[in-house]
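To: structure desk
From: M.T.
Subject: fold request, one chain
Message: Could you run this one when you get a chance? Sequence is below, nothing fancy, just the single chain.
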Amino acid sequence: MPVRSLAAAMVRPRGSRSDDLILRAIAALALLGIVGSLLDPMLGALTSFVLYTLWTNGPYSAVLQGAYEPVLLLFGGMFPPLLIAALGTLATVFIEWVNYRLYAHARDTRAARSLTGGQVVQHVTRLFERAPFVAVALCALGIMPYTIARCLSVLSRYSVSRHLAATAVGRFPRLLAIAALGMTLSLPAWLVPAAVAFALAVASVIWFARHRLRPMPSVVSQRA
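Reply: Done. Structure tokens follow.
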């Protein structure tokens, strides 16, 4: 490909303005990690941690439960916990901005179905009605399911800036505590690929189960 054509392809917008920003940010981060690993392997390792944070906290985070904490423990033992918590919080806030936009597009469908029934949902909803910032922060801290707070913010059109600020307030101490725990533990190096493999396996099983349980269009039409 000629240099001019390659340059044109790189600057051409991809999708909406937000989608284009997301793709360019991730691409720039990956490029930074490649270049940084040549200069300092530690910089490449930190970049991989940020990318992994984006993946495990992104739109498919619901099927990647338990895949992030082992890696957080491992990196907490390799780097200062405060640094890991700060990077993890920044990456989480960025990808949560993406999640918020995705849920906003599905405000009347997926988000609504996620809030049907359950005592935990009712408790979070009542708290959110009184103090939305506190509810989001507590969910980000891990006391209550975070997806509930995200759905409530989207359905109520809660300010995205306040939602992200509350996410950072709740997420940072959680990440710091887990990373600090990793500093005191002696974890094996194979934990990272094992956690990634586990996350992929769980996601694959859930995806397969959903598609197998989904009724075929012909069967639905015949029953109708």
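Reply (cont.): The chain has a mean pLDDT of 75. Let me know if you need anything else for the meeting.
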